[in-house]
């Protein structure tokens, strides 16, 4: 069951956290006397909001809110960077565990950041009209795909927040419910 929880949380973490690529990755040099098409950044999307479909009280202050960032503090915001060759970067700042206690009717949120060396994730992306299809871990046997929809200067990616309960007697985490969430990103100027 812990493996299932870690899988859900890994997928969730990839949807939640993003980071921009380094400027040094923006172009490729000529090699062996051949001209190689310059790879450029075509779109940059910066996280602006995370809105839950139903109001929740993850911070246990007695007030339910649909704004995820007001309910769970300390989780970094990030960026999605898309390049002209169909690659890009996103980040995995870590894992967020949301655990519900039925006995106390409260939530516990645990944020575990990743090491700096693991914070950037390579993605492969395609464009289909107003959609951006982002494929994470494309070179592994367990790729994960998200589809975002562009409306004006906003990219919206729909996802779910997995909520777990902790069975203390057996020391296992059990899936409790999912809450729908929209990750919103604002378009940044590309230089």
In terms of topology, how is this protein built?
Layout: H1 2-16, E1 41-56, E2 65-67, H2 68-71, E3 79-83, E4 87-91, E5 94-101, E6 106-113, E7 120-128, E8 131-136, E9 144-151, E10 154-167, E11 172-188
Antiparallel strand pairs: 1-2, 1-3, 1-11, 3-4, 4-7, 5-6, 7-8, 8-9, 9-10, 10-11
| SSE-based structural type | mainly beta
* Number of self-contained structural domains: 1
Shape: elongated
Low-confidence stretches: 16-31
Helix percent band: under 10%
H/I helix tally: 2
Along the chain, the helix and strand elements come as HEEHEEEEEEEEE
Mean pLDDT: 82
**Into which percentage range does the β-strand content fall?**
over 45%
Whole-number radius of gyration?
Answer: 18 Å
Number of beta strands: 11
Sheet with the most strands, sense and barrel status? 8 strands, antiparallel, barrel
Terminal residue distance: 46 Å
Strand order of the largest sheet: 1-3-4-7-8-9-10-11
């Amino acid at each position: 069951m812990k493996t299932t929880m870690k899988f859900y949380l890994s997928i969730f973490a990839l949807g939640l956290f993003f980071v921009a690529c380094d400027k040094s990755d923006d172009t490729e040099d000529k090699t062996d006397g051949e001209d190689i098409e310059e790879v450029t950044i075509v779109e940059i999307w910066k996280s602006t909001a995370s809105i839950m479909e139903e109001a929740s009280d993850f911070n246990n202050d007695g007030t339910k809110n649909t704004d995820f960032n007001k309910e769970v503090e300390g989780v970094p915001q990030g960026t999605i960077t898309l390049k002209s060759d169909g690659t890009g970067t996103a980040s995995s700042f870590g894992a967020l565990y949301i655990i519900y206690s039925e006995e106390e009717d409260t939530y516990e949120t645990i944020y575990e950041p990743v090491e700096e060396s693991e914070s950037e994730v390579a993605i492969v992306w395609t464009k289909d009209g107003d959609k951006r299809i982002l494929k994470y871990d494309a070179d592994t046997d367990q790729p994960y795909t998200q589809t975002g929809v562009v409306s004006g200067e906003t990219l919206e990616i729909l996802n779910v927040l997995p909520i777990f309960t902790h069975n203390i007697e057996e020391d296992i985490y059990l899936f409790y419910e999912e809450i729908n969430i929209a990750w919103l990103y604002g378009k940044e100027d590309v230089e």
